Each structure stands twice: as C-alpha cells, then as structure tokens.
Amino acid sequence: MSSHSERESVGVVAIGRNEGERLQRCLDSVLRNGDVVVYVDSGSTDGSVEMALAKGASVVNLDMSRPFTAARARNEGFRRMQQLAPQAKYVQFVDGDCEVAASWMLAAVQFLESHPNVAGITGRRRELYPQRSVYNWLTDLDWRWPTGKILAFGGDALLRVAALEKAGGYRDDLIAGEEPELCVRLRAAGWQIWSIPEEMTAHDANMTRFGQWWRRTIRTGFAYAEGAHLHGAPPERHWVRESRSGWAWGVALPALVIIAALLIGPLALLGFLIYPLQVLRLSAQEAGPLKDRLVRSWFVVLAKFPQVFGQIKFLMHHMRGRRAKLIEYK
Questions:
Q1: Domains of the chain
Q2: pLDDT tens digits, residue range 298-307?
Q3: DSSP H or E run through 39
Q4: What are the DSSP calls for 268-289, one per residue?
Q5: Secondary structure (3-state) at 154
C-alpha cells in the first residue's frame, strides 16, 4: 500500500484539553501521516484550539454545557472525520498527550487489509519519561500487553470504520473504561481485536505525585464496577473478577481482621501480614530485578483500596440515578 492510498483510507481523531506542548507533538506526528486530522477540544484555555487550527487540523469544540467524557469526544470527532473524509475505511484514535510513531499507520492499515475479521488493532505504547517518577514507570509497565488476539484496546487504536459504525460508536455516558466496553460489543458481533508488535505511540502521563496515581486508580475501580454492571453476565463476565478482587482485598479482608481483633484480641491484627505476603507472592511471579518486582507488586496490592473507592463511587451514583463527573488525575 502506498503512502498516498494510506492517506486516502485513514482519518485521525485526536482528543485533548490543555495538553500544551504534548498536543503540538501529537498533531505533528499525525499530520505527517494523513490529510484528514480532527482535533476535539474540551474547553482548553492554553491556546490549543488556535494552535491546532494553525497546523491544519479540523477542530471540534465540545459543548461543555453537557457532561464531558472522552467517549463523547471521540464520537463527535469521528462524525466530523466522516464528513471530511467519507471515503475513509479506517480511523486512528489518539489521545492528545501521545505521539504516533512514523511507521505505525502504514503497518496498521496493512494488517487490517489482510485481516478482514479484525475490527481494530493496537500496538506498543510507551511512556516518554518512565524515569521521572515511579508512577510513570508503573504506567509504562501497564502498556506492555501481549501481541496477538486480545480482549480490548486502549485510547490509542486504529479501527475499521464499518465496524465502529455498526457498533454505534463509544458509549457517551461512560467516564472511564469506554474502550474495553466498545470491544465487548465488537467481539459480541463477531469481530476480533488484535495487538501487533509494532511501535504505535509514545505517551506522556506526566504523573509525578502519589495523589495523581491514587485518583487514576479510583477511576480504574469506577470503570471495573460499571463494566461489570453492563457486561458482567456470562459468558463475557466483563471485569467481574477485577471488581471482586477489589472488594476482597480492599474491604472484606481488613474488616475480617478488625472484627477478629475485637472478638479475640490484638494478636488477630497479625492477619494484616497477608498484605506483605501477597506482595511477595506476586513479585515471585514477575520477571526482572527483585527491587522492580517488589515495587510493582506493592502498588498492585495497594491499588485495591482506591479501586474499591471507585467502585463505591459508581454504586452511589447508580443508586441515585446520577451521572458521575470525570475523574481526572492531571
């Protein structure tokens, strides 16, 4: 496939808010690949809209009087892309804090051209600055998913336009976990999702404080709970195991230890040793230097607490019939 035909068959949708230099790098990386680039802005005050227009992107300014979600931004960007490039067979979604690798678009399109049963693919996403903080480093590890057929992609992915249209796009009302939820529906319709061993995007999490990691993990827990609520029934069982794990480690076990201490005595508090033991067990299953394995395993165990907070947040909003606001960490 030539670079010319690639440009004709792919449109790009980037979303962001106040990303500054990160957005500049993002747009530069996709404008070199395709003629049609749509940038969806959600109330930036840093000149992002003007900069995107100057670079030649088509800009969609979201109506911020309506609740914002990344899913809604992607859907509105996709609709604009279809207006500008009705011939496009594929759409590349990218977050505004990511740069797309120069070789990615061509490799991704070639893969989908030769695999007509695949709805969307993802590749290798890396953190730009994993050395700046333990939280950036952990995020980089999270992006290391296996290659081959997978269950879901993240915010950066190249999708077949026909498959996305038939699925009805992303769910506008989801504040987190909208990509795996879309993948559940795509797979239910008979499509496959793949990860290929190709450099895709460089991501700048810019996460340097514990509070950022905590809020991001609360959002993960919220997504687990809502995903299980929507698609937790067999055979999918979407995020049921992850949700139950949060309740077990974040609520049930601490409660049991405290109750035992009240009934039996302070010696029962030794039951909390199950947490460092779990850290050791998980680290033994990892590969790499011992220190890295221990640090990652410690955060895996610690994450159960903010995750369960996120699940509680979802349940409270669901019972009250209210829409939750976006949980941001930047």
A1: 3-207 (3.90.550.10), 231-320 (no CATH)
A2: 999 999 999 9
A3: strand 37-41
A4: GGGGGGHHHHHHHHHHHHS-S-
A5: coil
